[in-house]
Design brief:
- The structure is a single chain.
- The chain has 5 helices and no strands.
- With 119 residues, the chain is mainly α.
- It has a single domain (9-118), classed as Four Helix Bundle (Hemerythrin (Met), subunit A) (Up-down Bundle), CATH 1.20.120.160.
- The longest helix is centred in the N-terminal third of the chain and has 27 residues, at 25-51.
- It is elongated and about 45 Å long.
Length: 119
């Protein structure tokens, strides 16, 4: 059962509609890419924060924002969007708690999406 508080069911249906006769193969593939890539983007956020590299930080936050929106991880999308906006407007000085929120929400999305494609 999909946790609709974490993953938007309509977004999942929209992805399924792209290849309606493939037995969710496309959904499993795109989910696997997301679950593999997002930890790499989070690591990039951490490295660029430590290095004070705002441009790389913004790009990584933007990447997470877009990919999470595609899979309907709307709370993660919002957290990444807030992180991206804060780093653009105010730099990296106060993004620590926002980065933690992104990590938490990715964890929740990971659990929900893993359960979805395992069924």
């Amino acid at each position: 059962m999909l946790d609709s508080s974490v993953i938007d069911p309509q977004s999942i249906e929209n992805l399924r509609d792209l290849n309606p006769d493939d037995g969710d193969e496309f959904l499993r593939e795109i989910t696997a890419i997301f679950l593999d890539d997002t930890p790499q983007r989070i690591a990039e956020l951490e490295r660029s924060l430590a290095a004070g590299d705002n441009a790389t930080f913004i790009r990584a936050a933007h990447s997470i924002k877009g990919s999470s929106a595609n899979l309907g991880a709307l709370i993660l999308r919002t957290a990444a969007g807030t992180l991206e906006h804060e780093s653009k407007v105010n730099g990296l000085a106060s993004v620590g708690p926002l980065l933690e929120a992104v990590k938490t929400e990715f964890g929740r999305a990971h659990v929900a999406l893993s359960a979805l494609v395992a069924t």
